[in-house]
Amino acid sequence: MDIPVKDLDLLLADMEPVLKEGRYVYASLKDGVSLPLDKIEASVKEQEGLSVLVSEKTASDYQLESQFLAAWITLNVHSDLAAVGLTAAFAKTLSDEGISCNVIAGYYHDHILVPNEQAEAAMAALRSLQVKTIKEMKE
Q1: CB–CB of 103/52 below 8 Å?
Q2: DSSP characters over 29-86
Q3: Residue 127 and which of 3, 34, 79, 135 are 20 to 30 A apart at CA?
């Protein structure tokens, strides 16, 4: 069984960012609006309604008002939910490149949503952070 990683250097060295296929958007489901569970990629229950992350196609098919056309990057390291510094490290790296990010922590992995048009730049920045960390660990 995969053991969650808590050490920041190991998390960064092993993060292996992968760009998920597709384009994603955020939408909010108001009272009385439903969506099949298999169409929802992620969700958060908020006071204003259920915030959902769905594919751009699903938003269009169900005529959902949406915002933030995003690319989805998964960090393939099994991050410990109590680990300290991972989000701060990749958020700073992306911020330094002028790339905004929204983060979803899953049970096994962290998922980063970046502006769709900046997907490749985000991947390059994350890979650079990974390589830099590996190099520093060897010194």
Answers
A1: no
A2: EPTT----GGG-SEEEEETTEEEEEEEHHHHHHTT--EEEEEEEEEE-S-B-TT-SSH
A3: 3
CB 64 within 8 A of CB 27: yes
| DSSP 8-class letter at 30 | P
Q: Where are the domains of the chain?
A: 8-138
Question: Could you list the mean pLDDT of each consecutive 10-residue stretch along the chain, which spans 139 residues?
Answer: 90 97 95 90 93 97 95 97 96 98 96 98 98 94
CA dihedral sign, ordered 63, 67, 68, 73: negative
CA separation for the pair 69, 129 (Å, rounded):
24
User: What is d(CA 53, CA 39) in angstroms, rounded to the nearest whole number?
Assistant: 9
Q: Write phi, then psi, for 68 (nearest 5 degrees).
A: 60, 85
Regarding the domain with residue range 8-138, which homologous superfamily does it belong to in the CATH classification? VC0802-like (3.30.2130.10)
